[in-house]
Design brief:
The structure holds 2 protein chains of 2 kinds. By secondary structure, chain A is of the alpha/beta class. Chain A contains 11 helices and 12 strands. Chain A is globular. Chain B is α/β, with parallel strands linked by helices. Chain B has one domain (2-259): Rossmann fold (3-Layer(aba) Sandwich). Helix content of chain B is 39%, strand content 12%. Chain B has helices spanning 2-16, 21-26, 28-38, 62-71, 112-126, 144-155, 176-179, 185-192, 204-213, 250-260; strands at residues 53-56, 132-137, 161-167, 170-171, 174-175, 195-200, 222-227. In chain B, the strands form 2 sheets. A 5-stranded parallel β-sheet of chain B has the order 1-2-3-7-6, with helices on both faces. A two-stranded antiparallel sheet of chain B has the order 4-5. Classes of the chains: A alpha/beta, B alpha/beta. At the A-B interface, helix 3 and helix 4 of A face helix 5 and helix 6 of B.
């Protein structure tokens, strides 16, 4: 995803000289194409995320569109108040980019697990929050961010994520993409869980004759509430799938949408990292299963749902 | 002008029962000189891209900034009378939304110097010859984020950036020396790569000279350590910690205005 991001950003920056890129001294072997082509609009601010975010806001106040870049929690939670006050309060076009959201750096331990970022960023009042599902969505999202006049958060995976969209989908921020049709249940995925979600949908069909609708909810804020409500009305239940704490992220956003909906509607289950301090380390695939077995969760949900 | 800023700030905090009058009074002379004789700003075109910038990083001194902006005609003087009122424009800590002349909303310490670095960097990149002034407090120099920005500005040769420390030696629970010593403060800035000048922050000739002389060294950002007195201009408020918090009673307001030679 980070490769798709930087490639797209370079293409955009070639024709839009408002675009700047700041990094907190991370992105070695990723950001060089931008640095080499647009040296005067690239700043490695050093290991200083608070200053990076303030500098970005200052630049943005002068008409620049500024991307800040770092990994996991560093461009978000480390400098949260700068994001909240300098960027959001002043309503400036700063695009915060985090690479390695979720468990991409899973073996590095809890400091490097980005599992609260979506919750925190979603709580900020005028922040657009985007977590693309694959490299194709990453490119489309990066382009779309330029048209948002205010602050954005772009949460990316790391590298070598598989392409899910074999053909480019119709993409608009705030509009879920229906990646698979099905009437029994709806799986709503955000970020890099899309490929796994599609895999699970395939298994549900092949092994259990359960046809799942799959939505890629690449934008958490503003959330596509209409797609959520349609899923809850038209299918037997909704399961959210995220590489993030089940508190505050996609699951909570979808729960909010359902709470605003009059019954009857199907039940909701949230699949993600349990809301407890996680001391376990390991690879991304291993840590993604902290929430249990997704196939079994879906089967259990449908068993309990009256026909 | 300085006396009028002080008087207006006093009336505002009295009206709103607000805090931080001591911090407003200590920087009133700095603001008066800046807005009367230094800043290239146009109240009729507050967003002109080539303007000089003033960023009040010590956003708790908002009353003084609003006062000088209203005096300069950025917005009507009667807005000051609604300071901190329900639904009013002027919040206790600086807000820029709907307030012409305020560059950034501030209020949490340790943010303004980074904002100033960003503006100064943009100006350099775009070939705009403006200067960027950032007003810091001394207590604010406790914030780590400030020193991130202090590293950044010299590295990028931001000689269009001028930081001013309102060095009134007082902060939340006592003196700076008691709470968290900053000394030797000039040496700290110098060692970070800043050109430093120390002045009496109430002597208008010294203030003007420093502002006009900046940048003090080519290719280097400048910092002015303005030695000030917290509560300056009102004898019973000077160097009294309580006036970081208290707002004056009717009688205290009248006495303070009388000392300033302003009508109640």
């Amino acid at each position: 995803m980070r490769t798709a991001f930087i490639k797209t950003l370079c293409e955009l920056a070639a024709t839009d000289d408002r675009i700047w890129l700041l990094t907190g001294d991370l992105g070695f072997s990723v950001l060089e194409p931008f640095r080499d082509q647009f040296a005067s609009r690239f700043v490695n601010v050093g290991v200083a995320e608070q200053n990076m975010t303030g500098v970005a806001a200052g630049l943005a106040s002068c008409g620049k569109i500024v991307f800040t870049y770092s990994i996991a929690n560093f461009p978000t939670i480390r400098c949260l108040e700068q994001v909240r006050n300098d960027v959001c309060y002043n309503d400036l076009p700063v695009k915060v980019v985090s690479v390695g959201g979720g468990f991409a750096y899973g073996a590095q331990g809890y400091t490097h697990h980005g599992v609260e970022d979506l919750a925190v960023m979603r709580a900020l009042p005028n922040m657009t929050v985007v977590a693309p599902g694959d490299p194709v969505e990453t490119e489309l999202a990066t382009r779309a961010l330029l048209d948002v006049p205010g602050p954005c958060y772009l949460r990316l995976g790391k590298a070598r994520e598989p392409v899910v969209h074999k053909r480019p989908p119709t993409f608009a921020l705030g509009q879920a993409i229906r990646v698979r049709d099905g009437g029994d249940v709806t799986l709503i995925s955000t970020g890099g869980m899309l490929e796994h979600t599609m895999h699970v949908a395939g298994r549900l069909a092949a092994e259990h004759k359960i046809e799942a609708r799959v939505l890629s909810m690449h934008t958490l804020k503003p959330l596509d509430g209409a797609a959520v409500r349609a899923a809850a009305r038209e299918t037997g239940g909704v399961v959210t799938v995220e590489e993030h704490s089940v508190t505050g992220g996609l699951g909570s956003a979808v729960a909010d949408a359902l709470a605003a909906m009059d019954p009857p509607h199907g039940p909701l289950r949230k699949y993600g990292a349990p809301d407890r301090l996680n001391r376990r380390i390991g690879c991304q695939t291993y840590l993604r299963t902290l929430g249990g077995d997704l196939v079994e969760l879906v089967r259990d949900l449908l068993k309990r749902t009256p026909k | 002008m300085a006396a009028r800023i002080r008087a207006r700030a006093l009336r505002m905090v009295h009206h709103a029962h607000a805090s931080h009058i001591g911090s407003c009074l200590s920087m009133a002379d700095l603001l008066a000189v800046l807005y009367q004789a230094v800043l290239r700003v146009d109240p009729k075109r507050p967003d002109r891209p080539q303007r000089d910038r003033f960023i009040l990083s010590k956003g708790h001194g908002g009353a003084a900034l609003y006062a000088v902006l209203a005096e300069r005609g950025f917005f009507p003087l009667d807005w000051l009378e609604t300071y901190c009122d329900d639904g009013a424009r002027l919040a206790g800590h600086c807000t820029h939304h709907g307030v012409p002349g305020v560059e950034f909303s501030t209020g949490s310490l340790g943010h303004g110097l980074s904002l100033g670095c960003g503006v100064a960097l943009a100006a350099k990149h775009d070939g705009v010859s403006c200067r960027v002034f950032v007003q810091l407090s001394d207590g604010e120099c406790d914030e780590g984020s400030l020193w991130e920005a202090a590293l950044f500005a010299p590295h990028h040769h931001l000689d269009n950036l001028i930081a001013i420390v309102d060095y009134n030696k007082g902060q939340g629970f006592g003196t700076v020396a008691e709470v968290l010593n900053l000394e030797p403060l000039a040496d700290k800035w110098r060692s970070f790569g800043w050109a430093v000048r120390e002045i009496d922050g109430h002597d208008h000739a010294q203030i003007l000279d420093a502002f006009q002389a900046a940048p003090f060294e080519p290719q280097q950002p400048s910092v002015i350590l303005a030695h000030t007195v917290k509560g300056k201009g009102v004898s019973f408020m000077e160097n009294k910690l309580a006036w970081h918090y208290k707002s004056p009673t009717d009688e205290q307001l009248a006495a303070a205005l009388a000392e300033l030679g302003e009508t109640p």
